[in-house]
Amino acid sequence: MTTYFSEADSAQTVNARMNESANPRLREVMTSLVEHLHAFAREVQLTQHEWELAIDFLTRTGQLCSRERQEFILLSDALGFSMLVDAINNRRPPGATENTVFGPFHVANAPERQMGDCISLDSKGERCIFEGRVLDPQGQPVAGARIDVWSDNADGFYDVQQPGIQPQWNNRGIFTTGADGRYRFIGVKPVSYPIPHDGPVGQMLGHLGRHPYRPAHMHFLVSAPGFETVVTHTFVGDDPYLASDAVFGVKETLVAPFERIDDGETVWRSHFDFLLTPAG
Question: What is this structure's pTM?
């Protein structure tokens, strides 16, 4: 029996066109997507004008994408969708260090550094000692864990945003734990900064009465043989944007202490332990 399109049966009609030979997972995802998309349009009684605005918004979002900027990922971040996908794919037992968004500013193959080295190369900002341990679920130290770290500088920019202004590899480095599982390096206390908001996503935030700021944070990518890789941040505990992160990346367990020490070499100390989850 031929099924023609109608408002009441729109999703069923579209999904019925999928061939049985389609990949089963693709069929599952697309069937659900069509059902939810059509239900959304009916629920809000989407107008033709609103549909046209949405098409224009998505077109401009795509036109702004380049090798240096991914406006669609920024849109996913700003809608909390990136964090939801991350949470679904990185469920961990209580106590294990939680993931958060990767962010667009990681650079592979950062310099290998010695424990205690300073990663701040531009002499800006208040220096901070970052230290702690990498542990297994029993609280035993993990030797050979690689800790890839990166942050903005005191002006709120990453080195890749200011080539020729910041030194290459500013506020970046890779450290490897010894038998005690400890890490220690000197950086700068991070500062909050806005996500790119000069495009469609920024305009959307403005119309929604939302700000574009991320709270101050240090990025960590922690990996060790036999354990799940952790992609996360530690957040400065007194930052005013903790409860309103533009990309929803803050988790309570990732808010780290920043203790003022003023010892002549550094101004702050931040201690944070990473508890890894066995792979599989």
Answer: 0.91
**Could you report the per-residue pLDDT of 70-97, keeping only the tens digit for each?**
999 999 999 999 999 999 999 999 999 9
Residue 82, beta-bridge partner list: none
6 burial level (CB within 10 Å; 0-12, 13-18, 19+): exposed
One DSSP character per residue, 214-233 reads E--EEEEEEE-TTB--EEEE
Helix (H, G, I), strand (E, B) or coil at 86: helix
Total residues belonging to the chain: 280
**What is the rounded distance in angstroms from the CA atom of residue 278 to the CA atom of residue 280?**
6
Nearest CA to 146 out of 101, 108, 118 is that of 108
Q: What is the pLDDT of residues 104-136, one digit of tens each?
A: 899 999 999 999 999 999 989 999 999 999 999
Q: Where are the beta strands (DSSP E) in 151-252?
A: 172-176, 182-188, 193-194, 213-214, 217-223, 230-236
Is residue 151 a contact partner of residue 219, using CB atoms and an 8 Å limit?
A: yes
Segment holding 48, helix H or strand E: helix 48-63
